[in-house]
Predict the 3D structure of the following.
Amino acid sequence: MMPSYHIYKAAGTTKSCPTADTSIFIGEEVPDLVREHGLEALAETFEADAVTLEQTLYESLPGGTYDRLLARMLTRKATHFVVSHGPDRNDAVKKLLAACEHALSDGFREADKMTWASDLVVELETAIAAGKEVVSP
């Protein structure tokens, strides 16, 4: 059985302009475009899917959910920087953290934002100091 998740949608701007219910179906594997059309075709497919997904989520999700999703996605990618960037990893992670904090600047109340950012910084710095992979909050 295919998993299904319930996510709240954004409130419409007015009663006459409600946010439409949205369904996203993720159910097919990416076709082997490289063999027939080259890497550029695969890159174009990834870009088109990313643009469609991001636009759909932007138009459908409440701002707080969208902001937190962005921050979580950026945080998850911090692991990539910690593992693969060697001596420069601290700088890479700090840049990523700055991007997360910027992404959150409009989504959280000030107290929530500071708590989340502080916890994230402590978690990342502790993991980096210990030479461990970063775990997303």
